[in-house]
Amino acid sequence: MRKLYTVIGAILLFAAGIGAMHLFLYRVVPAVEGGELPLEATAGEWFTLRYPSDSPVAARARAHVEYLEGVMKELLVSTGAVQADLPERINVFVHTDHRAQARIIARRRSPRTAPIYRNPVDIIYGEDPRGEFIQMIGDFTFGQNRCRLLRHGIIQYILDPQRDHHLAVAALPEILRLSLEDLLLLAGRGHFRPTVYELFSSPFSAAADVGLEGAGRIFALFAPPVGVTHDLEVMAMSFISFLVDYLGGLDQVMRLWRPGSLERNLQLVFGYELDRLNERWQEQLVGIGPQDEGWSLLAGRGLIRVGRLKEAMALLALAAREEAAEASLEMARIHLLLGNWDEMEKKLEQAVARGVDGRYYRDLLRIYQDWSTNYVAGVRIHSPSQVTAFTPSEVESIVADFKERLGLCDTPFSADQLIIFYNAPPGLGPRTDHRMGVLQICSRAKLRYRVAEYVIAHLYRDQTRSSLLRRGLAYYLSSLPEADYVQQLVSNLILIGRPIHLIDFDSFPDEMVYPIAAGLIGYLLEEYGPEKMQQLWAVTSSLGGRLSFDTAMSSIYGFTRRGFGKRFTEW
Question: What is the domain partition of the chain in residue ranges?
Answer without folding.
Answer: 40-283, 295-369, 371-453, 462-571
